[in-house]
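Supplementary Text 2. Reproducibility record for the structural model of the 442-residue chain.

All settings were left at their defaults, and a single model was retained for analysis rather than an ensemble. We include the record here because the model underlies the residue-level annotations in Supplementary Table 4.
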Amino acid sequence: GRKNAMNKKEKIRKKILKEIINFYEEEKGKKFVPGKTYIPYAGRVYDAGEIMNLVDASLDFWLTAGKYTKAFERGLADFVGKKCSILTNSGSSANLLAVSALKSPLLGKARLKAKDEIITAASCFPTTVNPIVQNGLTPVFIDVELGTYNVIPEMIEKAISRRTRAIFTAHTLGNPARIKEIRRISQKYNLWFIEDNSDSLGSLYGGRYTGSFGHISSCSFYPAHLITMGEGGAVLTDDAVLKKAILSLRDWGRECWCMTGRDNTCGRRFSMKRGELPFGYDHKYVYSHIGYNLKATDMQAACGLAQLAKIERFIKARKENFTFFYKHFKMYEEYFVLPRSENEADPCWFGFPLLVRSSAPFSRNDIVRYLEKNKIATRMLFGGNIIRQPAYKDAAYRVCGSLRNTDLVMRNLFWIGVYPGIKSGEREYIRGVIGEFIRSRA
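Retained model, structure tokens:
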């Protein structure tokens, strides 16, 4: 009886999953209409595979981490080139876990303490900076290079003080920073190095994927990024102690490392003495960190796993779109500073940045309004100069050197999308609209 019931369930499952393909075929295929169809800067690109995985996971009704989570974490770690990846509910949470882990008592004398400094770029997304402030640490802001919009290694070295303990920087818009020099500084001064790899998953530096260089790296799987699970992120590391701290902080601060749904993996669940708790206190309820609950669901991981299988295709499409726009904008170089990358870098671009020159016969606002009016999405470079944002008015921070370039980025830079959903028709339309604008102004 039980075997027959299981076979019947599996037949129903296969039937449901087969119908998803028919459903997807009915849904897909919306055609681009120039001037009427909005071209977003980014978005989810998927097929029936993602929907099938999502439904398969929901049929199991294992709503927390499970088989898909394990498979995704292993696949991501293998792709990036790290020993382990830990799935979390967002890239912002991944950054919070990365910084919080550096304050773990498990690190002994290497742990960060209140008011220790972390050097970062002033031109950034806020959730690179927020965990520093939230952990009672001090961000030290430095300027970025024009063209790459990445942190300047020489300024990192100048910014180091007796309280500096870490470097935390993103590869801006998928463009790898000067990692070799950053790592040299990290090693010379014994500093932790965290890579915010949210925008740069799929980028290479010296033949290695970004996210493989830091003591810890983070990823985001928000729909704008290379692969998506809607909301989601990951923390990656090679360090067993950091892994233990990150897992504890993600899972309420607990000391137990059992997978969800499993008990007594250590074999000592009721035979330990921890803190001032009575001997034998259930290890599942022993807390060694002041943590959070930042786990993702197996349904998110199921979607991410289907996306991971498409990652090479997504990388190729982003590079092709970037190359198309670069060739086009080259003829307008007198009006724009074009993006550039380091010799050792092979970026998987998140977007195409354009810095309007002060000598141009139009402003950033002029071209941005024109593009948006013609249904082409634009974005600023995230927080611009982060210290000018109202949220940081009362935050404790230090600035080293001038932030001249950062202010220029804040005033004059915008970017357009290169994500795989932008096909040849959309590209040609964008090229035409920009050509019309330039001709009308020049």
